[in-house]
């Protein structure tokens, strides 16, 4: 009789230990969640050098927003795609900005009012501005040329709080700024292997980034490019459903075990 009770208690304890080990194995360690970890002990004030994204070259099918300003209001409006007294109100939403932008042809040209075709392929936004400024100066004095990329969109999918496509209204954006727009990564996100899909002349190419290492700050992919797609894959432990250590479950299991042992004494 005693051996039978002992066997029952031993079986239940074995099951309990298995359950606890399963719970522990399903927890996400901080090492997999923390960003920018140093692999070796270093000074807290480190300088990281990276290539900024301002060297993006305009490509066919890109859309460029161009606006010309001058002291001679009656004349300079002829160089703009739309001229109304509403001013900036015509460009208050994304659709208006897109419709009033200039599409780059497959040959690399934009068709600019009065000036005609302007070759912009493989030029940076700043270089396009300089080319247009030089051309406009032949017609007007005291002009200011504003050039912006309209199709600077990035897409973030996977283990983030708010996946989706985001429009960038600035010249550059870092990968951490992009994730902050998406509400940051979830606890289940695999920060060691972030997939960055970037279009190249030969097609799309996938690069894998490790956000847990501070080396990302030196990476050429620290600054994103227009059209980048970021996929955040889940950790394997997501199937167990625990994002943090389930103290309540473990304590309940231990309490139950103690009650069982006292019962069969």
Q: End-to-end span in angstroms?
A: 12 Å
CATH class of the largest domain: Alpha Beta
Taken together, the total number of domains comes to 3
Strand content: 15-25%
CATH architecture of the largest domain: Roll
Spans of at least 5 consecutive residues with low confidence: 83-88
Total number of helical segments? 6
Shape category: elongated
Radius of gyration: 29 Å
| DSSP helix fraction | 25-40%
SSE ordering: HEHHEEEHEEEHEEEH
| Helical/strand content category | alpha+beta
Using the coordinates shown, work out and report the CATH topology of the largest domain: Outer membrane lipoprotein wza fold like
Major β-sheet annotation: 5 strands, mixed
- The side-by-side strand order for the widest beta sheet comes to 7-6-10-8-9
Oligomeric state, counting identical vs distinct chains: single chain
Number of strands: 10
Query: Please, what is the average pLDDT?
Result: 78
Give structural attributes.
wza like fold, 265 residues, alpha+beta, 23% strand, 3-stranded antiparallel sheet, elongated
In short, what is this structure?
The protein is an alpha+beta fold and 265 residues long. Helix content is 26%, strand content 23%.
Give an account of the 3D structure:
- The protein is an alpha+beta fold and 265 residues long.
- It folds into three domains: 2-27 and 245-263; 31-49 and 153-240, Outer membrane lipoprotein wza fold like, CATH 3.10.560.10; 63-149, wza like fold.
- The chain has helices spanning 2-25, 73-76, 94-99, 125-136, 175-181, 247-263, and strands spanning 63-70, 102-103, 109-112, 116-119, 143-149, 153-158, 164-167, 189-200, 203-209, 229-234.
- A five-stranded mixed sheet has the order 7-6-10-8-9, covered by helices on one side.
- Strand 8 (189-200) and strand 9 form a beta hairpin.
- The radius of gyration is 29 Å and the shape is elongated.
């Amino acid at each position: 009789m005693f051996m039978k009770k002992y066997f029952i208690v031993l079986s239940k304890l074995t099951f309990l230990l298995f359950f606890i080990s399963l719970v522990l194995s399903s927890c996400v360690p901080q090492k997999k969640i923390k960003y920018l970890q140093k692999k070796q002990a270093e000074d807290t004030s480190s300088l990281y050098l990276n290539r900024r994204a301002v060297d993006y070259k305009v490509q066919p099918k890109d859309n460029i927003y161009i606006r010309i300003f001058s002291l001679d209001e009656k004349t300079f409006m002829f160089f703009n795609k739309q001229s109304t007294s509403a001013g900036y109100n015509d460009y208050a939403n994304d659709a208006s900005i897109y419709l009033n932008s200039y599409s780059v042809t497959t040959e690399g040209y934009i068709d600019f009012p009065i000036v005609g075709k302007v070759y912009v392929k493989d030029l940076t936004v700043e270089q396009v501005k300089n080319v247009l400024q030089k051309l406009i100066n032949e017609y007007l004095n005291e002009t200011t040329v504003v050039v912006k990329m309209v199709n600077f969109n990035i897409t973030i999918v996977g283990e983030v709080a708010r996946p989706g496509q985001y429009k960038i209204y600035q010249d550059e954006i870092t990968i951490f700024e992009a994730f902050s727009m998406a509400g940051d990564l979830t606890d289940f996100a695999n920060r060691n292997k972030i997939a960055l899909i970037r279009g190249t002349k030969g097609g799309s190419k996938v690069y894998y980034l490790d956000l847990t290492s501070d080396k990302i700050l030196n990476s050429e992919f620290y600054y994103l490019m227009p059209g980048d797609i970021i996929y955040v894959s889940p950790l394997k432990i997501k199937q167990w459903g625990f994002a943090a250590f389930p103290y309540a479950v473990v304590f309940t299991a231990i309490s139950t075990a103690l009650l069982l042992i006292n019962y069969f004494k």
